[in-house]
Structures are given as structure tokens and as C-alpha cells.
Amino acid sequence: NTMASISLKKIRKAWGSVVGVDSIDLEIQDKEFMVFLGPSGCGKTTTMKMIAGLLKPNSGDIAFDGASVLHTPAERRGAVMVFQNYLLFPYMSVGENVGFGLKMRGVDKQTIRRRVAEMLELVRLPGIEARRPKQLSGGQQQRVALARALIVQPKVLLLDEPLSNLDAHLRDEMRELIRTIQQQMNITTIFVTHDQEEAVVLADRIALMFDGVLHQVDAPQRFYDGPVSARVARFFGGANFLPGQMHNGQFESRLGCFAVAQGAVLNGPALLTIRPEAIQLCPAGSGRHQQNLLMGRIISHVYTGANTRVKVQVNELTLTVIADPHAVDTARAGDMVTLYLAPERLWTLPVESQ
């Protein structure tokens, strides 16, 4: 069963003067799990609907495996979409719901029965063919909707915020299930979410959008280690920013001079990005590191379970630090601490990207 690579070329969608999606270029690989991420209203669902054929772009082209699908109706594109309110047919049994697509294609009853059983097995709900949707929990209904989408062996699976109505525990379980099924079936998948944590767990690559514009397309880890702008860094769990100048691998600022191993700016004005988890807290005066040190005073610390968020005042700058609880369990507000910034964990950005 062949899967599709998808290519978006200068896709634009506007309603009058309101631009939903602004000239997007994107290549999605065959069998890739791509997550469209961004705040609500950024254009991610609009983009997905254009891929599905539910919306027509004003300009640009969409190709599956190199062939344009702009004039191919939705039902012939080989892409299926699953929405957050799974829209099962209430008067049909689960089995009839899952087999619906095959029945519409005129497949014989015996084959449908066998394929429905296989699909329910795949989504870990074996043997529930006879039940009605209203007898199922939200999580089970979502899995039935997934089975119904997958039974027609689509080339592309499109998932629009499918987990946003589920509680946290179920959401984790469903993420794991979706990822497992995607890898088992080797299906090209696009998943829309506004939740950066969800994106990181699921994606091979993330396409991050703001205001209808694609800002960065990368593997999840790159959004932490190499964001293209301050806006991207903020969206990914926030960062501390310090303005200054890059010069020969050194970042010069009001707070001193720091060695920086990498960045988007290697010379001239820059914004130093310091991730909260990249800062090491050392007791004041501990001489383990000789460079990249800052002295500060603890303003507050909040224990969140897995870690402790510490706010440290360094001159006029307030830094957020994510620390191991054991490292700071004796720390008190008002204590002086030394902060170590590891050169390989720092990253520079263009100044205009604030």
C-alpha cells in the first residue's frame, strides 16, 4: 500500500482581506509524521483542510507524489481526516461505523467483517463491533473514528487536534497509540495541535506557524537547541534573553562576557538565548567552573514535581532556571547563588527577532 509524499508550493488562502495562510512552502516526506503546531488561528487547520481537499487555496499548488491534486476532489485524493469531535454515526453499530468506507466502495460483506475486526484489533478495541457509539467513552469513540479512517487504507492520515477533548491520562495513551499505529502502517501523517508538548512527543518534524506564516520546520529537538527567533524560543517553553554583541565566539554583554559554541549569529549584535534547563545552579563561590559564570540572588522557587523553577535576579535581569529539586532543596529566597552557563547549551539569535 503506497503512501504519499506531499508538497505544498506557495499555498495561499484568504477571505477578503483576512489572510488565513500566507504563501506556504513545505515538503512532507513519504511515511513522515509531521505536526502542524501553533497558537489558535495561526492557519494550521486551514492548511490541513487544503491538503484534504475540503478548502481550495487562492493560489499555489498541492502535489501528492509529485502530481498536483488541486483539481482532484477530496474523496479521490486518498487523504482521510479525523476531527476532534469524532462524528460517528449514532444509529449504526461500531462495526457498521468502521466498515462504512468499504461498504461505500462496494466491498463484499465477508471482507468488510474481516477488515473491521483487524482495525478494531489495531486500535486495541477487539470485539466491540456490536456496540453503539453512545455506549463508548470519549477515548473509545476516538479510537473507533481512527479505525474508520484507516480501514480505507488512505495514503495520508490527517488528524485535527484529535485529543483536545480527552483528559491528560487518556491523551498520553492515545498519543502513544497513534504513534505506534503510524509506524506499523507506515502511513504519511499530519497532526494539528496547539500543544508544544504533544508535538514533541509525536513528531518526526514540526512545522511551527504564526499568523499564517511558517516560521520553522525542524526535528523537535532543534526547536529547543536552535530556534530561528525569540518568538519560536518563547513558544517552546520559554527562554531567557540577553542583548549584546557576538565577537570571535564570545558574547559580550552588560552582564559580562560568555563563550558561546553555536548560534544563528556569529558576529555583530545578537540576542543570547539561555534556556531555563541549561543553567546550572552552584552554591555561591564554588570554583568548579572558571568562565561563563553569573552571580545572582534567588527571588523565588516553586517545586513542580519533576523539577523546581527558580527565579534569580542578576543585576537588572531576572532569569528563570529549571533545576533538580535536590540541588536547591536548601536554597532560600534571598540566598546568593552562582549560575553556570554551559557554552554548548547557549544559542544566539538575530536582535530583530524579538
Descriptive key words:
single chain, 354 residues, alpha+beta, Rossmann fold, OB fold (Dihydrolipoamide Acetyltransferase, E2P), six-stranded mixed sheet, five-stranded antiparallel sheet, 20 strands, 25% helix
What's a quick, concise take on this entry?
With 354 residues, this protein is of the alpha+beta class. It is built from nine helices and 20 strands.
Distance between the ends = 46 Å
Q: Can you tell me the CATH topology of the largest domain?
A: Rossmann fold
Order of helices and strands: EEEHEEEHHHEHEHEEHHEEEEEEEEHEE
Radius of gyration: 25 Å
Strand content: 25-35%
Unreliable spans are none
Estimated helix fraction: 10-25%
CATH architecture of the largest domain: 3-Layer(aba) Sandwich
Taken from the alpha-carbon principal axes, the silhouette is: elongated
Number of domains: 2
CATH homologous superfamily title of the largest domain:
P-loop containing nucleotide triphosphate hydrolases
What can you tell me about this protein's structure?
This protein has 354 residues and is an alpha+beta fold. The protein has two domains: 6-225, Rossmann fold; 233-353, RNA polymerase II/Efflux pump adaptor protein, barrel-sandwich hybrid domain (OB fold (Dihydrolipoamide Acetyltransferase, E2P)). It has nine helices and 20 strands. A six-stranded mixed β-sheet has the order 6-7-8-3-9-10, with helices on both faces. It has a five-stranded antiparallel β-sheet with strand order 13-12-11-14-20, with no helix packed on it. A five-stranded antiparallel β-sheet has the order 15-19-16-17-18. It is elongated and about 75 Å long.
